[in-house]
Structure formats: structure tokens, C-alpha cells
């Protein structure tokens, strides 16, 4: 079966997000003042061929832990869905 792993990687809440701060400042300069905070992360899709949803999740977790996210600075959320 084919699955899609949707992975959202965001900086940890306690860490400074320089890209988010830059965007936040630029929004203010554009007159968009209703935004209190900006956090910038990554959205990654993995198309995975596996025998089960659990196996696809294991593959996605492995990819996140070894390559896609730095656990010291980032948090990753993974959602697995069957590809249609």
C-alpha cells in the first residue's frame, strides 16, 4: 500500500525563531499590526510504500529522527494517511 506522511517541523517554543521575528517585523512595516507572533517551520510530505500504516509511521519517524529535524531545536508532528 502507499501512504503519505505529512510532517510539520516547528522550532521549539522556548527558542528564538529569527526568520519568524524578521517576518513579524516586516508585517508591522506593511501596516499589518494584528499579528502577535510568527513562527516559521517546514512542511514535508513523504510518499511511502509499506505493508501497513504502522510501518509507514515507523519509516517516517526514522526519517525525522535521522535527517529531517533537529530534536535539540525542533519539534515534529507526523500524520499518516493512505494515498488515494
What's the number of helices?
2
Choose one word for the global shape: elongated
How big is the Rg? 16 Å
**How is the largest sheet built, in terms of strand order?**
2-1-3
The largest sheet is: 3 strands, antiparallel
For the record, give the distance between the C-alpha atoms at the N and C termini, rounded to a whole number.
Answer: 10 Å
Can you give the mean pLDDT? Answer: 96
**Portion in strands:** 25-35%
Structure commentary:
The radius of gyration is 16 Å and the shape is elongated. It has 84 residues and is an alpha+beta fold. The model has no long low-confidence stretch (mean pLDDT 96). It contains two helices and three strands, in the order E-H-E-H-E.
Short description:
The chain has 84 residues and is of the alpha+beta class.
Please write out the topology.
Elements: E1 2-11, H1 18-29, E2 42-49, H2 53-68, E3 74-82
Antiparallel strand pairs: 1-2, 1-3
Primary descriptors:
elongated, alpha+beta, 32% strand, 3 strands, 84 residues, 2 helices
Amino acid at each position: 500500500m502507499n501512504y503519505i506522511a505529512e510532517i510539520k517541523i516547528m522550532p521549539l517554543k522556548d527558542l528564538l525563531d529569527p526568520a519568524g521575528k524578521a517576518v513579524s517585523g516586516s508585517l508591522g512595516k506593511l501596516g499589518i499590526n494584528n499579528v502577535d507572533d510568527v513562527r516559521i517551520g517546514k512542511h514535508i510530505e513523504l510518499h511511502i510504500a509499506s505493508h501497513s500504516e504502522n510501518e509507514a509511521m515507523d519509516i517516517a519517524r526514522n526519517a525525522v529522527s535521522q535527517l529531517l529535524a533537529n530534536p535539540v531545536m525542533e519539534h515534529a508532528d507526523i500524520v499518516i494517511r493512505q494515498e488515494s
